[in-house]
Amino acid sequence: MRPIRFWALLLLIGTLNACSEDFTLLAPPSQKSAANFYQTAEDFQQAIFGVYDALQKRGTFNMGYWIAGEMRSDNTDAGEDVTGLAGQLAAIDTFDELPTNDYVQAIWADSYRGIARANVVLARLPKAELSAELKAQFEGEALFLRALFYYYLAQIFCNIPLILEETTSPDQPINQVPASQVYAQLIQDLRRAEELLPVRWPRGQEGRATKGAAATLLAKIYLIVGDRNSAATVLRRIINNYGYQLLPDYAALWGPENENNPESIFEVQYKAGGQGEGSPFVDQFVPWSTATGGQTGNRPTLDMQQAYEPGDRRFLISMDTAYVDARGNTQRARYIKKYLSQPFALFDAENNFIVFRYADVLLMLAEALGEGPEAYELINQVRRRAGLPDIGPNTPGTFEEKLLRERRVELAFENHRWFDLLRFGKAIEIMQAKGYRPKQCFPIPQREIDVSRGALQQNSEHR
User: How far apart are CA 236 and CA 157, in angstroms?
Assistant: First the structure.
């Protein structure tokens, strides 16, 4: 198979993107000549890039996952607009969303689209006449990507259908299981994916899944289920074997010129230029967009602003509290800066979205080890880059409080905060203290319950 640049192939996958809206959204995307398609290495490479494409959907990284990971938490809010669709966004922010919420439906539908595409690849690979090396690569990628979608679904909706086979009929049984059963499957799949995937890809294909990406998600799942020893083993393997490093300058992580850097473990790839592959984050997060009249949500809270210690270099790299408008006047507004660039057009910027990076690995290892000299040293590696003094056992607060605060400011606006609060068992306590009536699980979309003819059951928090 001839080498091909990641982006050149992403632009060829349109035939894999259609999905029948008359079908339950657990069903697979329609395929062009599916019976004859899965024959060559090029066919499978196009198909696996169809799975990557689902990472860019409205319900996944383009919007859905930051709604669930950041805006649901104390990091950001929905802004001042509470009309129309913005009202549905605000309802999620305040834990008042209904099962008919459009954003909730999009998260569910687009995540399962990605899973369905991955399942097709996994189902067709065994009979394909491909080299063992190519089969291993495609299987590893499909397993990792499917696990990534399931990780978000299980964290967001809790009790979800676990579908591991190619869906060929809307009448196939729906196996709704608790999140714990999903995580058990993901551990199995990610161990296999790490084994199969390469440490890195050739230049031009940096956005594809690697051993480090699979291992990072695997460690996160181990922490969720409480297996800290296994998490520590995996995290040490990432540190010792996979060649990542903490960049000396936090600012060097951000912007199109710094994509896929040595600290980055996995990024959702975007490409501006009017091809439908650009990222929307500049226009979603900045308050001065002339096309939209302002940001569409995910505004940093005052509490987020106050979480930064004086002198933390990360603050003005991650967010700001004022900007200069087109007339040269200073306007007061909190906004996210990590994804700033010059868009090609509305919602068409070059910025990738970093899903996993090495600082997260260091902080997760501290979490897995628990309080002690090694854990504090891991945290302090991250703090020193931010220009902050070391902390230790005599620093005020419990070890978990100190670690959770460090994760908050280091990984701000990267879709970690709500899931960290869940994993640390702090989500209800912290959000109640902010005056909310929090729920741990999002509602199962009503459309999916209706289409399933009662096979899907609503989460108890939303009945």
Answer: 31
Measured distance CA(304)–CA(282) in Å, rounded: 20
Residues of the chain predicted below pLDDT 50 = 1-32, 290-293
**pLDDT of the residue at 33:** 52
Which pLDDT belongs to residue 237?
98
Tokens 């040490």 sit on residue: 236
pLDDT at res. 35: 63
Long-range contacts of 10-15 (CB under 8 A, 24+ apart): 10/49, 10/52, 10/53, 10/269, 10/271, 10/277, 11/275, 11/277, 12/46, 12/49, 13/46, 13/49, 13/50, 13/53, 15/46
Residue 58 near residue 403, CB atoms below 8 Å: no
Give the C-alpha separation, 209 to 217, whole Å: 11
| Tens-place pLDDT, residues 286-338 | 887 544 445 568 999 999 999 999 999 999 999 999 988 778 888 899 999 99
278-301: string of b/e by CB count within 10 Å (b at 16+)? bbbbbbbbbbebeeeebbbbbbbb
- How far CA 416 is from CA of 141, 285, 433, in Å, comes to 22, 17, 20
Beta carbons of 41 and 49 less than 8 angstroms apart: no
Torsion, Cα 416 107 84 442, to 10 degrees, reads -70
Give the whole-angstrom CA distance, residue 272 versus residue 344.
Answer: 6
Predicted pLDDT at 172: 81
Residue at 1: amino acid letter: M
Rg from Cα positions in the chain: 21
pLDDT of residue 295: 56
| pLDDT (0 to 100) of residue 127 | 93
- Measured CA to CA, the distance from residue 126 to residue 117 in angstroms comes to 16
| Token pair belonging to 50 | 């169809």
pTM above 0.85, yes or no: yes
* pLDDT score for 143: 98
> Is there a contact between 291 and 283 (Cβ–Cβ < 8 Å)?
yes
Q: Look-up: residue for tokens 């929905």?
A: 78
pLDDT of residue 30: 42
Q: 240: how many CB neighbours lie within 10 A of its CB? A: 8
Residue 25's pLDDT is 38
By C-alpha distance, which of 407, 265, 253 is closest to 340?
Answer: 253
Contacts of 67 (CB under 8 A, 6+ apart): 89, 92, 103, 107, 297, 298
64's enclosing H/E stretch is helix 64-66
